Amino acid sequence: MDVGEFVRLRLSQSMISKLPNLFMGYIRGLKRPLIESAFAIFVGLIVGALIMIIFRHDPIEGYISMLKGYGIFIAKRTFMTREFMFALAFATPYMLTALTFAVGVRAGLFNIGAEGQLYIGAAAASWMAAHVALPSGFHVFAVTVFAMLAGALWAVLPALLKIWKGVHEVISTIMLNWMAFYLVMYLAIYHLRGIWAHITKEALPTARYPVLAGSLTAVIFIALLVCIGVYIFLWRMHPGYELRLVGDNPDAARYAGMSISRAIFLSFIIGGLVAGLAGASLAVRPEKWGFHATLGDLMGYGFAGIGVALVGRNHPIGIIPAAIFFGGLAHSGRFMEFDIRISSELVGAIQGVIIIAMALPGLLALIRRKAK
Amino acid sequence: MDNEGVAKTTAIAIVIIIIAAAVIGAYVATRPPVKPPAVFKIAVVSDIGGRGDLSFNDMAFKGGDDAERDFGVEMKEIISMVEADYVPNLRTAALDPDVKLIVGVGFLLTHALIEVAKEFPDKNFVGIDTFTKWVDPQPNLLDVVYEEHKGSALVGALGGLLAAYYDKPYIGGVFGIEIPVLWKFEIGYKWGCDWAMGWIENNKPEMKRGIYNTPRDKRVLYDYTGTFSDITKGYLTAVPMYEKGAVAVYNIAGPLGLGINSAVKDIATRDRLKAGPPFWIGVDANQDWINPGFVIASMMKRVDYGVYYATKLVLENKFREAVAEYGNEIVLGIGTTVLGIPMEGISVSTLADLDEFIKMGVKAEELTGEPVLPGPPEWIKEKVAEMRDNQPAWIWGAVAELESKIRTGAVEVPLAVTENAVKEWRAILG
To answer: Of B228, B129, B176, B59, whose CA–CA distance to A294 is shortest?
Structure first.
């Protein structure tokens, strides 16, 4: 046989013949969660519709308005890219804080520290972006890395408390979230402010992420890369495999001679890095290129990330569509309120029902995991 | 779970879904036809808090309601839950082709308004209390600000005259966070009290007692509490002021007025009083109804007029002209005009305008399902009228005199917005 034939044969044997199997296996693995999620969202929408009917609103109109949050304008028969970009702007920090929670779950932790780590990351990013002059190009990079390291630093504390003293991460991270809240508020008012007392100083032009549209900046590409990177780390690299095994079966992991402490530490650090990045994404973006000293621009993203992670089944890739789903939902409320005068509280209730329904399969899976 | 169980659960789920779908289907089939939309719409984007705050946001929505009634426009409203909502909320309103005017309520919306005004150059934007003209002025964006110093001077004079009449040595003021806007209130209030002393000297020499004999720079007890939300601090700050003999305490810290009110209530219970003194003085909205008989008056900042007049300007195609003419900012106050049209926004509360604020309380009761008003509307009105009648007419007359002098420009209330100006005035008035 000649060389060409040989290559063809080898290729068909190795890649091409295996590819369909690999692909089908992946699809088969996805089938069950997809069906479950589809059913869950359906139930959520039905209950949401019932709420709207009870309060004398038209559910069809309500959901048509809700779709506007995803850029889908049915009445005009158009797709508004700009609106979708706004949904993506909300999705970016969701993606990252969800990753914090998901990496925790994979290591058997219930890490709800993303909220505080995000604040710290935002403060670090704001300081580096507005108060330090660096050459353009390098400045953006420095802001990003500094925010991530700051987030990770805030995650070191609960990690060490857990490893050394066995302090449960739920307790320590909640406490650290509040410490971060007041610390960052103090920093914002007294050290990060610019001309206006209520907003941190705006980021220097050299430190700004390129704007794609509205509040959406190129930081979304970093977020997507981070999701893929964490996926590769967890499923294609040895320390990632160890981390997952510690989460799945700590006894087996210990028996196999793996360091549980190292896996836990790693999980916290990765979580802190990505939460810090989420903080940077919120602190360095239009229209202020800073954040309000009330922290209203930052609040809630860390906790919302838990829901996003559950909907995305704590999978770094599953989190991406889940975050976009949440981002659209976050953007859609104002349209429902504006178009059909649903009160904002009711919008929150309807969205809450849909989110709970969607998170339920993931939550049950989590409980099953814990029960095992 | 065995297979039978799964089948059962699935069956139940399917039945529930079918029923729900049927209910929704029936509802949709019978829904009323859609109303034809009004041609001209305005949109009000609130600050955090939204409806039911009985103050800033409610006043803005009231302005929209009044514009609906008088001009036949339609008002759309969006509540901001967090600061991150400002821009998307303003954009949502601007996306509606029928919306011609978008109002952002509160100075926190400054940057968001600039951003969205740039994106929608054909739409008109208004910010209440915003400072966009100092950040990045836009030809389609107008700041609406108020002459709080003049209103504060009027209630300062009222307080000073009451203190003389009741032979009390002081008046008081509970302030929020020390920001330049509040200096306007502080110096205006002290100046008003000082003006009242001059008035007594010239017109009522027999009233040269109480506060008149207090040194000029000690007459106003005041304290910056550093908060706009901690009601307890309002109470703790007001109590010693009343103990020292303040006849009235001016609330310049939003909800802290409720703390001042508690301090007054304590004294009223202890001394079995049916009406003041002691009094307190309301701010922004007409707060006279909160504790009828004990709130002598309120310094009203008519946020509702801001929304109303902005709508009027847009309807009469004068909006852009006003933006250009007045350097992106119109001032509503006492005797102010915009393009020749009288547009005021500051006044001392009267009995006549109590009604619309009682209505606001009634609406808040409907929204929250909790009692807001201290009693039936008729009872409130009677008590407030009685309290006002029990004060001598010359006091009200003197306050009216000051107002007309401010209006004609016979006197000028100092406007202190810089640290140096405040220092200078504090050196004179304390």
So the answer is: B228
